Amino acid sequence: MNISDVASSTGLPVKTIRYYEDIGLIAPARSANGYRQFSDSDLHKLAFIGRARSLGFGIDACRDLLRLYNDQKRASADVKKLAKSHLGEIDRKIAELGQMRATLSHLIDACAGNDRPDCPILADLAADHDHA
Amino acid sequence: MNISDVASSTGLPVKTIRYYEDIGLIAPARSANGYRQFSDSDLHKLAFIGRARSLGFGIDACRDLLRLYNDQKRASADVKKLAKSHLGEIDRKIAELGQMRATLSHLIDACAGNDRPDCPILADLAADHDHA
DNA sequence: TCTTGACCTTCCAGTAACTGGAGGCCTTAT
DNA sequence: ATAAGGCCTCCAGTTACTGGAAGGTCAAGA
Fold it and tell me: pLDDT tens across B84-116, in order?
């Protein structure tokens, strides 16, 4: 299988697949002309990584997940721990964004949005929020 | 005012303040020895930027907000438009993270988390989610 | 056979917004 | 005089790609 076939069957961009080889996530064989030749195993790995990335796991976490996946003697506790830690990160981000959302949405509601210069949004940004 | 004073009163790291000068957000004066000399206006600008950043606005949006802030003839509609667009971005991110959270949390609940290798999390990652 | 177009390759640079560190001058206090 | 600490610049690294240039390869049609 050539790279563009792999791209269309995994949904990953060609560039991304090359990048994943670069950083050592996969190591596809090469044919005589220098083209990458992807095995089913490469394909599965890439699909696995793509799925993990879509759940927000970082590249290093993907590496760990792949290692655990290939380890027949793994303990599911290790996987769960990794996933829980990632869930914590997600929750932290959601909380942060939720906080931003609340403040911003409040300010937007307070803003007339007309051709006058008075603006509660700018007023808030300029106000003293005290970091001292 | 020297840079570390500004850092402690704005809550921004010294490195970040230098960076903001680098990219043209501020242009503090220099004293004879080459040290940056921050005016009250510089200080206010930095506080403004810091606040905008804490609401998740990107650097370019900060530049726009600062420009609007300094424009006495601005229309609040322009500020509101910018803020609304940013709110949309935030909502998009929250939705994406919420989706991840839901899936991941479901998988975590299904995982025994013991010393056995069976793991619904890995099973899901390895499963065919069909991008073809 | 030649050419054209779609592949494939590598390498370099850029993205967002900093952050860390090296090497070195300036200031202040002992 | 010296040591500590603040300031300076410049370079490199971070995350996870993405775009583009320059060039080799392959299959099909005229």
Answer: 999 999 999 999 999 999 999 999 999 999 999
- Mean pLDDT, 10 residues at a time, chain A of 132 residues: 96 97 96 97 97 97 96 97 97 97 98 97 94 72
Q: What does residue A29 show for φ and ψ, rounded to 5 degrees?
A: -70, 165
Nucleotide showing the shortest C1' distance to residue B31 CA: D7
B19 touches strand C (CB under 7 A): yes
Whether CB of A1 is under 7 Å from strand C: the answer is no
Find the distance separating the first CA and the last CA of chain A, reported in whole Å. Answer: 60
Report how far residue A18's alpha carbon sits from residue A75's, in angstroms, rounded to the nearest whole number: 31
Rounded Cα–Cα distance for residues A12 and A51 (Å): 10
Which nucleotides in chain C have some atom under 7 angstroms from a protein Cβ? 7-10, 16-20, 26-27
Three-state SS string across chain B, please? CCHHHHHHHHCCCHHHHHHHHHCCCCCCEECCCCCEECCHHHHHHHHHHHHHHHCCCCHHHHHHHHHHHHCCCCCHHHHHHHHHHHHHHHHHHHHHHHHHHHHHHHHHHHCCCCCCCCCHHHHHHHCCCCCC
**Distance of residue B31 Cα from the nearest chain A Cα, in angstroms:** 25
Bases of chain D below 7 A from a protein C-beta are 6-9, 15-19, 25-26
User: How many of the other CB atoms lie within 10 Å of CB of B117?
Assistant: 16
Contact B128 A83 (CB under 8 A): no
Q: Which residue of B has its CA nearest to A51?
A: B125
Distance CA A58, CA A77 (A): 19
Within a 10 A sphere around the Cβ of B76, how many other Cβ atoms? Answer: 20
